[in-house]
Amino acid sequence: MTIAPPMDSRTADDASRPGADNRGSGLTRPMSLSSPRGPVTAALAVVLRSPVDQPPIVSDLPAQIDRAIGASVDVLSDGDLQLALFWLYELHYGGIADVDERWEWQPGLLACRASIEHAMEAALRDSVHVPAPPAQTDAENVAQALFALTAEGDEQRLSHYIRSEATPEQAREFLIARSLYTLKEADPHSWAIPRLRGRAKSALVEVQSDEYGAGRAERMHQQLYARAMEAAGLDSNYGSYLDVIDAHTLCALNTMSMFGLHRRLRGALLGHLAAYEMTSSLPCQRIAAGLRRLGYGDDVVDYYDEHVEADAVHEQIAGRDLAGGLVEQEPELLADVLFGAAACLAVEGRAADHMLAAWTEGRSGLRTPPRTHRGLVSGPKKRIPSKRRRVRDGG
User: Fold this and answer.
1) What pTM value is reported for the model?
2) How far apart are the C-alpha atoms of 333 and 344, rounded to whole Å?
3) How many CB atoms sit inside 10 A of residue 5's CB?
4) Which among 278, 280, 320, 97 has a CA at the least distance from the CA of 181?
5) How confident is the model at residue 392 (pLDDT cuts 50, 70, 90)?
6) Distance (Å, rounded) from C-alpha 262 to C-alpha 258?
7) What domain of life (predicted)?
8) For residue 385, what are the CA distances in angstroms to 8, 134, 251, 378?
9) Cα(213)–Cα(116) distance, rounded to whole angstroms?
């Protein structure tokens, strides 16, 4: 396979200078519809490309989705249903190119979304093991329960593999798979802000402010990841690789969107965020080491370096002030907080295990090997020298 160099070796210093361009901003335009993966997405694509004022086009879709759910062996890994749900959620985020924005609140599509969500939530609740709640519901006991739940387990094997064994092609497949979340990082959890109050709201805003760059657009985590993709020779436009991303990865992203878009699931959303932050710092450290082992420079690794420090701080805030603070205010949400954390570990673990199994069997970890701006996915020829500057201690 041809080894292609990164596009350039611009450093974090270069990117953060006043007046620096926003190359690779990731979310500068709506994503395009990807290829359908079955009868549901084929029918939904026709609907989304049609005028919003033609209700007969959408009238049969809910029944078709119900039939597909009934016939599905596993809703959580059903590519057709997961892609359909992802499209429907994207109407609430950045939108879809050439799709009328009024589809976002069209009752027929909302019914379709609700059907898939109902099946997905039921599948998660049936399959996810939720630990027994702590006897005391003060913030410290809630945090300790979450730290115990998220203690390193098999779901972090992927970062160990990337650190010591991943090939350049596998590393860039990983960057592609993660891009569906990281190019809109923090957005799903921000749905909770108006649904909280007091200590929990303040904690969430503190965490999210760091995620969005603390007032510096070039330090937004979404932007850091977009620059990493560009430097690795990948397309940083959101959704560019949707066709090659598997159902397990879609399910992981859909899970947090489902939690975020339903007020009744705000406890699950905060539990999800707490688990996400608690399982980020050390894996990011290993991934950064693996990328450097493969010769990538700081323009690629900056995103992961940022999270090593930032998430070590965020996990404490998320456990005690965010999740713990919420449960102190609304103790009836404790079970949902634990469910959300356990669901996060489960869906992220399934996605990671799917990719790792493919790699260890000598296959691509994606649905199909993608192409980049300059050809097939590959790694750098040599280490890219660059200067680093530690930016801040929160992110």
Assistant:
1) 0.88
2) 17
3) 17
4) 280
5) very low
6) 6
7) Bacteria
8) 11, 50, 37, 19
9) 34
Alpha-carbon distance 160 to 287, whole Å?
A: 8
Mind spelling out the 3-state secondary structure of 195-254?
HCCHHHHHHHHHHHHHHCCCCCHHHCHHHHHHHHHHHCCCCCCCCCCHHHCCHHHHHHHH
Helix (H/G/I), strand (E/B), else coil: 357: helix
DSSP line for 86-111: HHHHHTTTT-BTTS-GGGGG-HHHHH
The one-character DSSP state at 134 is: P
Q: Which amino acid is at 124?
A: L
- The alpha helices in 36-97, defined as continuous H runs, are 39-48, 55-59, 61-71, 79-90
Joined together, the tokens standing for residue 233 give 């020779």
Give me the domains of the chain, ranges plus CATH numbers: 24-127 (no CATH), 133-395 (1.20.910.10)
Q: What are the pLDDT digits (tens) for 130-166?
A: 999 999 999 999 999 999 999 966 557 999 999 999 9
d(CA 318, CA 240): 31
User: Could you give the CA distance from residue 111 to residue 349 in angstroms, rounded to a whole number?
Assistant: 30
Is residue 314 within 8 Å of residue 278, measured between CB atoms?
no
What CA–CA distance (Å, rounded) separates 244 from 225? 19
For residue 89 the two structure tokens come to 């959620």
- Other C-beta atoms closer than 10 Å to the C-beta of 246 total 18
Beta-bridge mates of residue 187: none
CA distance 265 to 267: 5
**Maximum C-alpha span of the chain:** 59
Q: Which residues pair with 375 in a beta bridge?
A: 372
Separation CA 282–CA 348 (nearest Å): 16
Residue-wise pLDDT for 136-145, tens only, equals 999 999 999 9
| Other Cβ atoms within 10 Å of 100 Cβ, number | 16
